[in-house]
Design brief:
Helicase, Ruva Protein, domain 3, five-stranded antiparallel beta sheet, 6 helices, N-terminal domain of MutM-like DNA repair proteins, alpha+beta, four-stranded antiparallel beta sheet, 2 domains, about 290 residues
């Protein structure tokens, strides 16, 4: 699933190619792609028609478009395979292009989703801590790239949790944007095992971990994100290449780039965690 860097790459593409355009019409060909819009496909298409896109915004992994209608936003769930592509209106239609919004300049914004876990939905905008966000995003914490992100507040929130530190990093209500890939990479940089209990970490250790998480996501953003297959691409259909710079994620049995010990893998929350057994020693009992 796309994490903060990948979603930010898409957001920047939408900001460059969609913001300022007016939606002339919307075609929806798969009901699952609008299942979160409870009023249905016809309602979504009708309400989007004629709106001018004012901004492309993001918090953590959540992405949305705002319009000249200040009361509603289009929340885009990328899911496991969702893509937001900007194409010429007469370009061949992708096999899994389930939503096509034709813009007044002759281009189309296409939502392509092979696995149909993602989708579009209009949602009301609410104000949370002085910031206007769509209602489904109201419970999501600020992410480390947010200008208003409070590092010390996040450190305190993490140290208040009596569970594994990796589980806390993945909790979007504590800190948003970090998923499985960048959690493993940040923990490796900070030399912390993911099964360490968050409340047992010192304040400097958590501060270092969050600083490393920020750094690794900035590095990934510069590389266009991480693409393991063709499912994650930017709005022009191009893949990111940060996979080449990953230190532990997906590198089981390969040498640690820091100490040379083999990278290990263990099951965690129905997924895999990758770590260096030497640089990140397991806590007792694990």
């Amino acid at each position: 699933m796309p994490e903060l860097p990948e979603v930010e790459v898409v957001r920047r593409g939408l900001d460059a190619h969609v913001v300022g355009r007016v939606i002339d019409s919307v075609s929806i060909t798969h009901p699952r792609s609008v299942r979160r819009h409870l009023e249905g496909a016809a309602d979504l298409a009708a309400r989007l028609q004629g709106l001018r896109v004012e901004s492309a915004q993001r918090r953590g992994k959540f992405l949305w478009l705002t319009f000249d209608d200040p009361e509603a936003a289009l929340v885009v769930h990328l899911g496991m395979s969702g893509q937001m592509l900007v194409q010429a209106a007469d370009a061949p239609v992708e096999k899994h292009a389930h939503i096509r919004a034709t813009l007044h300049d002759g281009t189309q914004l296409r939502f392509v989703d092979q696995r149909t876990f993602g989708g579009w939905a209009l949602a009301p905008i609410v104000e949370v801590s002085g910031t206007r966000v769509p209602e489904p995003v109201a419970h999501i914490a600020r992410d480390p790239l947010d200008p208003l992100f409070d590092l010390e507040l996040a450190v305190a929130a993490i140290r208040a949790k009596h569970t594994e530190i990796k589980r806390v990093l993945l909790d979007q209500t504590v800190i948003s944007g970090v998923g499985n890939i960048y959690a493993d990479e940040a923990l490796w940089r900070a030399k912390i095992h993911g099964n360490r209990v968050a409340s047992g970490l010192t304040r400097p250790a958590v501060r270092t971990l969050l600083t490393d998480a920020t750094a690794v996501m900035r590095d990934a953003l510069e590389a266009g994100g991480t693409s393991f297959d063709a499912l994650y691409v930017n709005v022009n259909g191009e893949s990111g290449y940060f996979e080449r710079a990953l230190n532990v994620y997906g590198r089981e049995d390969e040498p640690c780039r820091r100490c040379g010990a083999p990278v290990q893998r263990m099951k965690f929350m129905n997924r895999s965690s990758f770590f260096c057994g030497r640089c990140q020693p397991k806590p007792r009992g694990v």
